[in-house]
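<tokenise_the_fold>
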Amino acid sequence: MKPTALPRMLGLLARRELFEREAGILALTSNQPVATATIKRWYSIQRQRPVSWQTALRQIAAAARFKLSAKRPLGSALVLASQGDRIVDWRCSQEFERRWQWSLRVHPSAGHDLPLDAPDWVISQIVGYLRS
């Protein structure tokens, strides 16, 4: 996790207005303009299945403390990352590739939410990986 992302994430968690919080989260995770309909869908999901601030803080803390294990958890895997990610440095994914010999594909500009910003690219990377 990038140190600059932590204050922004904590600030978003502190927002009491749920729609504004979801809009802010999407603005942080996406490098594309997010349609109001998409924000409304995420708002609806959060209303129906709320994530408590305690759970969100635990997830942020886990991401901030994450360390690669010495033992490879899977024989092979595809890792997708983006150079435009403002939450996680894409070079962390290079370490998966280097240490565990996993396949890494890097998008040049998408945000943290690759399926939102570059869905066709994500699909093509998965299809290509499965074919190889």
